[in-house]
Write the structure tokens for this entry.
Amino acid sequence: MDLSAINPILLLASLMVAATAVMIAALGELIVERAGVLNLGVEGMMITGAIIGFAAAVHSGSPAVGFVAAAVGGAGLSLLFALLTQVALANQVASGLALTLFGLGLSSLIGQGYVGIKPPVIPKLNIPLLSDIPVLGPILFRHDMVVYFGILLVVLVWLFLKYTRAGLVLRAVGENHEAAHALGYKVVRIRVLAIMFGGACAGVGGAYVSLVRVPQWTEGMTAGVGWIALALVVFASWKPWRVLLGAYLFGGVTVLQLNLQAAGIAIPVEYLSMSPYLITIIVLVIMSNRRSASPASLGKTFHAAQ
Amino acid sequence: MKMKKRSFLAGTAMALGLAATGAWAQDDKVKVGFVYVGPINDGGWTQHHHESALKMVETIGADKVDMVYQENVAEGPDSERAMTQMALEGADLIFTTSFGYMDPTINVAAKFPNVKFEHATGYKTAPNVSAYSARFYEGRAVMGTIAGRMTKSNIIGYIASVPIPEVVRGINSSYIHAKKVNPDVQFKVIWLYTWMDPAKEADAARTLIEQGADVIFQHTDSTAPLAAARDAGNVIGFGQAGDMIEYAPSPRVSSIIDNWEPYYTSRVKAVMDGTWESHNVWEGINTGMVGIGEITSAVPAEVKAEAEALQASIESGEYHPFTGPLKKQDGSDWLAEGETADDGTLAGMNFYVEGIDAELPN
């Protein structure tokens, strides 16, 4: 065992990278669920975003175009879910699962021609002065734009939910859609917009995996990150800052356990392997002291005539 | 969960496809099924099984063989469903191409005594189940030699998948041969408990590189570790299962290539002739089942010559990669001077050799 081989600065820096994809996807799903809709299709939208973003970045040569395309692709796919659940009033759980299956199939179809291709490189930001600060510089200020975008998104989602009228309306729709409807809010329209936001975020999260974290296209490459994002929303009690905490915890323990393995620490590998899931769940469950934090109308079908 | 749902869909589609082809299939055509653990374009393990299968069809003739396959089949109970479906649709011979299909293959084979099964990389057989595998550790010996010579930091990273004898053999063989040419070499092993998860593989490769490794071995199926090595610069790696030539000349400096085609062709022919019998074979560099990909210009000429000499001596049978004196990790004796390991021990290998500073998961 040689713990000195682990460089804590590099560890913390890669933690931020490891957490970003799941965090962005979870923030999207958080808005969807706060609006009272349960979309289990996060994995499908992520993988679709991963390939659409990858393809767009390869063809345009610009990673930025890739991320925008991924957001549009994810939102587009989520419209299918919106159509099924908000217009056709289909069961949300079944529709969400179908969306995941569809997204996985669609992505491998689109991805046929993109195996083994290298995407354009995303420049690291390297903020002058700040990135030269010892210790903090490499940890905080030498990442790609998307890492900062993820943190900004946490702030924006939090501000939106807590301090804006639109956020209040969205929450009202999620807590009691009949009351919101009675007050004259367009429940379906608000939910469709929330679903599209969730899809866009999932798409960006997926593209982060295929464009930055790996970076290449492989079928099924999100490998369950979407499900982790879903779980994170629940364990974070539908609160943006806890999503950030949970994602960083999850990413952190993931990277840490790899480091501990490589350093040859004497903890059985099986325990290290499951530790990211276990620790994230335990910490977030302990933090969520209030049991009934879930939006009251979550997963319920709404029809104006009822 | 994802895999199962996914393969359920694939299975439904496959059932429809099989039903359609079944109706048209001629009885004199031999029907061969392949069950794959990953997607057919993973760039590694599954892709090479699939390409070998396609070449087999080409060699024998598409008018004589009907090939069906199912990709992304999760190991475990789900694979029984896939095999059963193929058997019910009239397959004469079914190749199951991942270690975790071993017990499912035995179970399904018991229900279909007239269908022949071939399971890759396992050790259980039955009257209608053969086991076939490749001595990848022979290729690992060659890679280990290159790794030991090429490393400057003397730290070699190893991305391991699932703790089964096959993977443990690979680690031991690489280590023994790296150590032989470079006594200061140190191995760092990371277990991922998956055959394919590009994000995890990339993270593992980066972690190893951050901890000083400048050579990365992988026993996982995607090219993500090579992508990470390329980004890091000055780090080399090896193609696994497939040639992964798109990463040559560096980071990919050589590769272990699985070539199943000759075996598939001979076994399908055996079924056609009625000479098929259950067996347990383990072929290596000598029959071509284990191929060594081109050693690139990134490797100095003398190292290349040394690696090729080792390859030749393994091929001729003159040298066995597990030749004593060798001790187990705990310091107990394993092989005496000049003694070579028997296949039984190798098939069940569950220990590291002396010198590897890591804990082997059970």
User: Anything to note?
Assistant: The first helix of chain A runs from residue 8 to 34. The domain at 3-287 of chain A is CATH 1.10.3470 (ABC transporter involved in vitamin B12 uptake, BtuC).
